[in-house]
Amino acid sequence: MKYLNQMRDINLIKGMLEKVVLKSKTQVNIMEVCGTHTMAIFKSGIRELLPPTIKLISGPGCPVCVTPQSYIDTAIMLSKRKDVIITTFGDMMRVPGSESSLQREKALGGNVKVVFSPLDAVRIAKENPQYNVVFLAIGFETTAPTVALSIEMAYKENIKNYSILSSIKTMPNTMKALVVDEEININGFICPGHVSTIIGEKPYGFLAKDYNIPAVIAGFETVDILMALYSLLEMLENGEYKVKNHYSRLVSYEGNKKAQEIINNVFETSDSNWRGIGKVEGTGLQLRNKYKDFNAVVKLDIVEAQEKPIKGCICGDIIKGKNNPLDCPYFAKTCTPINPIGACMVSEEGTCAAYYKYRGSST
Amino acid sequence: MSIITLAHGSGGKLTHQLIEEIFYEAFKNDILLQQKDASIVPPINGKIAVTTDSFVIHPIFFDGGDIGKLSICGTINDLAMRGATPLYLTVGFILEEGLEIEDLKKIVNSMAETAKEADVKIIAGDTKVVERGSGDKIYINTTGIGVIEREVDEVSEIEIGDKIIISGTLGDHGISIMSKREGLDFDVSVESDCGLLNGLIHKVLDTSNKVRILRDPTRGGLATTLNEISSLSQSSMMLYEETIPVKEAVKSMCEILGLDPLYIANEGKVVLIVAKEDAEKVINVMKEDPMGKDATIIGEIVPHERRSVYLKTELGTTRLIDMLTGEVLPRIC
User: Fold this and answer.
1) For the segment B227-269, what is each residue's pLDDT rounded down to a tens digit?
2) Among B200, B177, B202, B203, CA closest to B331
3) Topology of domain A2-60+182-245, per CATH?
4) What's the mean pLDDT in B60-77?
5) Using one digit for the tens of pLDDT, what is the confidence trace for B102-122?
6) Cα B166 to chain center, whole Å?
7) Which of A104, B4, B108, B223 has its CA 20 to 30 A from that of B260?
8) Which residues of chain A are within 8 Å of residue B251 when distances are taken between CB atoms?
9) Domain residue limits, chain A
10) Sign of dihedral through CA atoms A34, A36, A40, A42?
11) H/E stretch holding B112
């Protein structure tokens, strides 16, 4: 907390803000990829203080929001099986499937347990040998290492009743997909801080090299975000396209090699399904052949649910940053955190939830 | 190790033993010991305040209290919030088969001690036992009866310029409970603030007759309580971020878990809306009481066309403070 308090020094933040304001001359679109950044930006209220020349676009970095509805429907289907215990991170509980949610299924008698780590799910599998324990593996490179660890653990200890329903996604290719999409015009990226602790700086290199887009790896304090904005503006002004790491207190150039190693041991790159977007090449992780017995779809002979798009819901475009929540006809009317229609409203870090929770005095 | 069994709820010998050896022994007073189907109390002079609350907290023992202490404080505090002097309590227990009798004794003794501290008699009770798996060790319901000294909670009296006061640090109870939650073995030293507020409130009401509203920000935290008041009174509030008291340990836990102390439950705090001219006087009196030693002004009633609660950040930006919407939190009260 001591360091946090130092970084929260109000004069420091005000000074940084002033520098950003002075630096901003032409119109730029900056995407913060990560949901935690979106929340931090809203919580501090800096949007109000930035000049209109800086447009902040919220990206696809909320793991719950990008998980397709068909995935939730498959999980719900599984939770109804008498031989299955579903284990999941808490924020998946309220995500609406096409007709129900895991929270509702739990109330109706579905065997669903909230865990804080996939390692807890392995423990539950050990304690309940008569059940198939399925962990809902969602998230990005940040959750992937512990999921991989849980698989290695179950493999070594020969725990046969543990498996995962995987929808893990990876960031760099996702950012590439956004860059090549002609409908989205991004001039600079604030790279996801947590993901970067695992993958390091290297994987973002292509943004600057191939697409002339500067990127800054940033922490989650207001001053971190302002510093990232300043650096991006400076690089754009000078036509100098680089990846800069301003989160060096946690992120190294190489990243966390141990975590990368365990991910690579267990997973290989695959395509992945994104809510409202569909299949995107090379943006997912699937279990390697050695660990195929831990794939719940194969192990439990699951017929995966089909995607049933919700009419009028623009979560897909919000995730891509094409639209913002205020463009959605449902936002804050029929779609609210209590009764979410789309996933962006469910998670604390969803773009719509952030807009809703921190809507300013003017909206 | 003796445990509660279904026989303790059968109405037979074991039920009587439980009542006499544990409940009467701890709670005994002239009214309870009438031992009749209904207790008869002497006439009460004045308007009567009644409130009821059920307690299902997990875990049942925590730093700074237990479900028993909580069940007494919660109900007495609700009476105090309306300006009532608490007089009597009734207690209903739902016990799960398998509960250790030693644990029950600890809880009952803690209730008796807290009731004594508040100068309140427990005058009626009931116990039921449910099968193992149908409950979670112990649930307690308490109903409180008090006599009105000076009726508080007149939302219509709220005026622009009135000050919002909090009696101390926010989020202690919720964080204390959460740190003991299964799978989250944080080694934090935050005690629950679970405690009686009737003494403090008494002093406040003796000091000022311009206290508009008293509320204890329990479930949903301060943010939710203020939103309730704002919507009832059709008034807007502005809180000032830098004035809101939060312990360092609570702040750290909130950082790690991604929570906001404004939404975390308290069990020994009161939020007051007081006329501007009396605010300082009230703060000074509160600070003399151990339950109000960190009392401070955190905001005020402001004119705004949309009736809502706002926070002025240290940076000078303004953001909306909404009600709590369903979050995955453990049972905390």
Assistant:
1) 999 999 999 999 999 999 999 999 988 887 778 899 999 999 9
2) B177
3) Rossmann fold (3.40.50)
4) 97
5) 999 999 999 999 999 999 999
6) 14
7) A104
8) 1
9) 2-60+182-245, 65-170+255-299, 315-357
10) positive
11) helix B101-117
Nearest of B185, B320, B313, B321 to residue B253 by alpha carbon? B185
> Which CATH architecture best describes the domain A65-170+255-299?
3-Layer(aba) Sandwich (3.40)
- pLDDT of A360 over the 80 cut: no
- How many Cβ pairs within 8 Å bridge chains A and B? 64
Rounded-to-5 percentages of helix, strand, coil across chain A: 45, 20, 35
Residue reference for tokens 């001359």 = A25
Q: How large is the average pLDDT for residues A107-121?
A: 92
- Count of residues for chain B? 333
Using the beta-carbon criterion (under 8 Å), do B304 and A361 form an inter-chain contact?
yes
Give dist(CA A331, CA A239) in Å, integer: 38
Provide the residue count of chain A. Answer: 363
Between strands B296-302 and B236-240, the pairing is antiparallel
Name every chain B residue with its beta carbon within 8 A of the beta carbon of A338.
Answer: 325-326
Instruction: Give the mean pLDDT of B141-150.
Output: 95
**A91 to chain B: nearest residue by CA?**
B328
Nearest to B51 by CA among B15, B92, B84: B84
Instruction: State how far Cα A15 lies from the chain centre.
Output: 31
Q: B interface mutation test: which of A18, A112, A357, A361 has the most B CBs within 10 A? A: A361
- How is residue A142 written in tokens? 């940040």
Q: Return the residue matching tokens 């060096």.
A: A248
Domains, chain B, in order of start with CATH, read 6-148 (3.30.1330.10), 155-320 (3.90.650.10)
Pairwise CB contact (< 8 Å): A93 & B315: no
**Residue A26 reports pLDDT greater than 90:** yes
The stretches of chain A forming alpha helices (DSSP H) are 2-7, 10-23, 35-44, 46-49, 63-66, 69-79, 102-107, 118-127, 144-156, 171-180, 193-199, 205-211, 222-238, 257-266, 296-299, 315-320, 351-357
| pLDDT for B322 beyond 90 | no
Give the pLDDT of residue A363. 41
ipTM surpassing 0.85: no
Which residues have CB under 8 Å from A133's CB, separation 6+?
A84, A85, A87, A121, A122, A124, A125, A161, A162, A163
Mean pLDDT of A12-40: 93
Do residue B328 and residue A90 have CB atoms under 8 angstroms apart? yes
User: Which range is least confidently modeled, A56-70, A152-166, A280-294, B41-55?
Assistant: A56-70
Q: Does the N-terminal peptide bond of residue B245 adopt cis geometry, omega within 30 degrees of 0?
A: no
A65-170+255-299 and A2-60+182-245 share a CATH fold: yes
- A-chain residues near B316 (CB < 8 A): 49
For B207, the token pair is: 């000091």
Confidence band for B329, pLDDT divided at 50, 70 and 90: low
Q: What angle do CA B69, B72, B76 make, to 5 degrees?
A: 135
One-letter amino acid for residue A215 of the chain: A
| Residue B328: predicted pLDDT | 47
